[in-house]
Amino acid sequence: MRRCRVAMGCSALNPLEVEPPIKAVDQDRNIQPPSDRPGILYYILVGHPAAWGEYFSLNRTTAELLLLKPVSRDLFHTFTLVIKAEQDNGHPLPAFSDLVIEILDENNQAPYFLQTTYQGYVNEAAPVGTTISSSANLSTPLNIVVLDNDIEETKDPQVFITLDSYKAIFTISREGITRYLTLLKPVDRETQMTYTFTLIAFDGVQYSQSVTVNILVLDANDNTPTFSQVSYSVEVFTNMQPGETVLQRQLTCDRGLLPSAPLCSPPIAPEQSTDMDGLTQLTARDADAGLNGLVTYTILAGDPDGDFAINNFTGRITIAPRVTLVVGRSYALTVRASDNAPPVERRSSITTVYIEVLPPNNQSPPRFPLKIYNLEISEAMRIGAILVNLQATDRELDPIRYYIQSGDDHKVFNLTETIGLLLLAKPLDRETTDQYFLIVTATDHPGSPRRRGDMQIEPKSSRAPRQVPTGGRGGRGIDPLRSRMMVVEQARRGEARRGVVRCDAVRCYVVLPACLPACLPACLPAAGELKTSTTTVSIVVTDVNDNDPTFDPTLPRNLTVLEERAGAFVGRVKATDPDAGRNGEVYYRLLTHAKLFNITANGTIYTAVALDRERGGLYELVVEASDGAVDPRRTTLVLQVEIIDINDNSPVFSQPVYNVNVPENSPAGTVILQISAFDADEDSNVTYRFSTEAPLELFTLDRLTGVISILQSLDFEDLSEEEDAIFTFQVEALDHEGILPPGVATVIVRIKDMNDYAPVFTQELYRGMVAPNAEKGTYIARVLATDQDPPNTNASRVRYRVDHELSPYSGSIFEVEEDTGRILTKVNLNEEPNASFKLYVIAYDNGEPVKMNTTVVEITVLQPSRIPIFTEEEYRWVAPP
């Protein structure tokens, strides 16, 4: 198979380069002389696509492939031709070969990555050259796929990919559709856990959009658990009970541990770990993560009788059950701290704990039943509710006082000082704080004397300070339940110094004049020392449904979508609910236009049907967000959705037929009508025209405004009867693109005869008589008016009415018939004889404009004696035969 590549639009590279070249070899090479050897002719036998002949030809003798005209890759990607070679001696003996011609795209497309972000993983113990994985189990490599639309998807896009950072740690392969990240130097999770950088691909002309790569370094067990101290020394007492912790806070008087500032406190070595009871416990640190960093403690040696137990997870050493300690006995416990990696990878270290058993010491602190109290309370709990009774016990049965040491900065809780009841003091709000960790201190108050007195101080220095009565100068009274204040005097190198020390339940403070350089007592003397213990109260605030879902105000509320597409993306809403569980789950629905739009569970809105902007160009969508509670809370959001128009409507006239009456003799240029058409599409400029040229003799039409005017004056009487003074023609309305059929309407123009004459009464004054008690409808007289306009036209038809403004009272008792002019009584009369009334009657025609005239009818009420009376009720006359 032979191949040839042609660049799109190329026309000047003839002949085309074919690999391997088109050449046939005749196996009959021994024919002599060479001039008798037959020649070889070349043809393109067939090809695909069928249009190959328009673009390519083959020289019959040289086999050169020629390009006849440029090829567009938008039309053809490849051509497959069958080349035939045969002898020219009448015995063709043909041979065939396939030729594939590939049309190359011009480089007008930027390369792009298949993903916008990539997440990779690598073990911190991985050697240099390791391929970054796509999953935490390191089973599959991280595939970074880059494509270029200028090149077929199955071929290497041959782009160069660069990293914006960490180039000394990672590198990316240089070839292939799929590239791989590899490690250039080791990584350490404890130094840096994640690496984030961006990649950009370059095809020599255009750059891709950058993508983000995040690589998480997975832990390897490369750290050994390490104790904070090489050894620990502690003292225990024979009156300690099984289960009590033996590693208590170690109070030393080493001067190097005392601060030089005025504030002094019981010294604790910086490397010791102190729990919340003030007890020092074994602590081994392992910087690894997961099981590799989980430390387990074990006593290996030094306790043959099992007098002590160690908590495997915390390292707390306690007195074993049913054990009685013996004065003077010493222990050297070998304790191992090991991680929980697989056995073959496990690391460990050891330390020694020296324990000395001393005689009883009446200094046991109060004890809480639990080291930690776990509570769950509703955020709707009322103020004053009892949460828990934190009652501690004291071996010496001393009174106990309770305090919240930490964890309640805003005073949400109240702890009764004497009985240890924990109460709710302020309303709870889970959305503000969903959990509290209270450190509660229990302090005993042994029966120490309430007087100023001496105290025994046992410093490590050779010169012991002594206490002097506080009643002297600078002394103060003592409240043993709140604080202890003492005056300490020290002799040092022959120089006496004085200072005042205040002690509370936790620590001692030097208040005057400065911290004494000698050792201070560990709070109070042994006989009256306050002992404390602590417990932790973990309070989880449970949720009630007290929050409405809230819509994200940053998302747009004015949306657009193209008409005539079902399933088109409209927009997205997002609501959050700070409540927990089902109370915080958000569900969406549309309260309006639910048949036209759909909303998904994540708040994405699509069109449900193909919309028509001409039926509705703007929709107001009301979106409801509700939570998942049994009685859900709801919030609504109003969205404006504008439908974007496409040109799918022809102009439509405001009415299919326009009837217009034109007064005769109107001057040329008179506007007789303005037609209008509406195109429901947006931005459509409608123009108008006559459908035929016939109206152009008498009328003109403005193509932009639709105004129709007459070109000459038209006389009603001059028009022939055939024309009937009516002109009918059609007009068309076209949109600006002129693609759709025009709108069509009919215009009917009637030349209207004008009203030239007003009605004229036959008399200027009419008289009538009526009886004073005439009944309604009684005939009185008749008026008559004539009109000189052409007969049987509206302008010549005469009608009558009473002028009520000129005859307000007469018009209320008399009336005139509209068509006949007969004057009648309007009501049953009850008038005085000899009364006279004037009734003004108007005669008007129906022309345009209406013309009228007025006359007066004088009506006299007769005396009863003067009313004519017929002598007979009925008269008969028989006509002669």
TrEMBL record:
The keyword Repeat applies. It comes from the Eukaryota. Residues 22-113, 114-227, 228-368, 369-551, 567-653, 654-761, 762-870 form the Cadherin domain. InterPro entries: Cadherin (IPR039808), Cadherin-like_dom (IPR002126), Cadherin-like_sf (IPR015919), Cadherin_CS (IPR020894). One of its GO terms (molecular function) is calcium ion binding. GO terms for biological process: anatomical structure morphogenesis. Keywords: Calcium, Membrane, Repeat. Its main location: membrane. The keyword Membrane applies. Gene3D superfamilies: Cadherins. One of its GO terms (cellular component) is membrane. SUPFAM superfamilies: Cadherin-like. It is found in: Membrane. Residues 443-479 are annotated as: Disordered. Residues 451-461 have a biased composition (Basic and acidic residues). This is Cadherin domain-containing protein. It comes from Coilia grayii (Gray's grenadier anchovy).
